[in-house]
């Protein structure tokens, strides 16, 4: 006989539960790696829609409290993915760092497989997949990241993350929660406990962020168009009328959404008018950013310096992807003459 099945999926056996909790590392390892994740990884990769809630659940594992009620196999997949990400940014010797990274990567993938994400997707699994894709990119495994990005997008669609408006009673996501996940998934393809009102929107943005960056890196069309809802984003303001400006994450969400809107891998380059729209949009985004993102001289902390250069790096990556279609090596010389490569120099580059 197979395992018992409910509306929420298969019920794990006692042996499965023991195996799951046996993967939890010593307290010191948890505290050190999670701290690295939160301070060094998370500020630039919004892979979790409520890192403080996740930290509270992780804290319940400290001190041998391994049977904490909020800790499920779904959560353990995300938990080990987070520790693997934290290890990538630790100060440990390379050999030790590699050993810990692959240990937690294996545990995360094991818990992912145990729950058969295709048949029983969950919010924790979506977040775990986003983290896993990012750390595989960092580990120079873009093919693995590309594969996981496709699984992430379709799992999110099964959960209804791509939909706006009221959700079915059985749904785990509110409209705003799904919006957040959509934004995370968008960057996936181009390079792949939260307030009930916020999860959808955060999820959508995370998906788009990942999808967009990974797709551009592969020179492929993104796959998360169903997550695209421009109303998930804050309005663009000229900095003269909105002193605060867009935060780093808001600015990144905007350039990833703009790239998804325009980036296509066509048989021939599109009309130059399309590119005029692209650069007009990017100029509006930059004008709406916080001062420290626009100007290095406005940076007042190390984090602001990192955000300034990280934004420039990703913006130029996306510009390069668009500009590549106008390179002299392309067959359509007429388009190349309309938009010379010098257009992409100057204030848009480091």
UniProtKB/TrEMBL annotation:
Residue ranges constituting the Xylanolytic transcriptional activator regulatory domain according to the UniProt record: 145-241
CDD domains: fungal_TF_MHR
Domain of life of the organism encoding this protein: Eukaryota
The keyword Nucleus is annotated on this UniProt entry: yes
Keyword Transcription recorded: no
Keywords (A to Z) from UniProt: Nucleus
GO biological process, one term: DNA-templated transcription
Any matching Pfam family: Fungal_trans
GO MF annotation terms: carboxy-lyase activity; DNA binding; zinc ion binding
Name of the protein: Xylanolytic transcriptional activator regulatory domain-containing protein
Biological source species: Clonostachys chloroleuca
């Amino acid at each position: 006989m197979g395992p018992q099945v409910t509306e929420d999926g298969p019920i794990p056996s006692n042996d499965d539960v023991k195996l799951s909790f046996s993967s939890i590392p010593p307290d010191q390892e948890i505290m050190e790696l999670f701290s690295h994740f939160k301070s060094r990884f998370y500020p630039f990769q919004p892979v979790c829609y409520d890192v403080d809630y996740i930290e509270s659940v992780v804290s319940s594992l400290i001190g041998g409290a391994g049977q904490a009620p909020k800790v499920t196999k779904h959560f353990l997949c995300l938990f080990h993915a987070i520790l693997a990400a934290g290890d990538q940014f630790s100060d440990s010797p390379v050999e030790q760092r590699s050993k810990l990274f692959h240990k937690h990567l294996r545990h995360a993938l094991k818990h992912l497989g145990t729950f058969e994400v295709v048949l029983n997707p969950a919010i924790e699994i979506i977040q775990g997949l986003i983290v896993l894709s990012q750390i595989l990119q960092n580990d120079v495994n873009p093919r693995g990241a590309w594969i996981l990005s496709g699984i992430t997008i379709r799992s999110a669609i099964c959960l209804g993350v791509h939909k706006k408006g009221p959700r079915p009673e059985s749904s785990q996501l509110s409209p705003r929660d799904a919006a957040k996940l959509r934004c995370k998934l968008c960057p996936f393809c181009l390079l792949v406990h939260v307030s009930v009102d916020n999860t959808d929107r955060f999820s959508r943005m995370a998906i788009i962020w990942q999808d967009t960056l990974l797709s551009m890196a592969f020179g492929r069309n993104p796959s998360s168009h169903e997550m695209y809802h421009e109303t998930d984003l804050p309005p663009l303001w000229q900095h003269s009328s909105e002193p605060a400006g867009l935060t780093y994450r808001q600015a990144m969400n905007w350039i990833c959404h703009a790239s998804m809107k325009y980036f296509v891998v066509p048989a021939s380059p599109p009309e130059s008018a399309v590119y005029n729209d692209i650069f007009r949009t990017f100029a509006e985004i930059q004008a709406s950013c916080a001062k420290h993102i626009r100007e290095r001289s406005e940076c007042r902390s190390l984090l602001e310096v990192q955000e300034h250069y990280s934004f420039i790096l990703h913006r130029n990556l996306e510009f390069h992807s668009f500009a590549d279609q106008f390179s002299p090596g392309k067959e359509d010389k007429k388009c190349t003459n309309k938009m010379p490569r010098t257009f992409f120099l100057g204030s848009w580059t480091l």
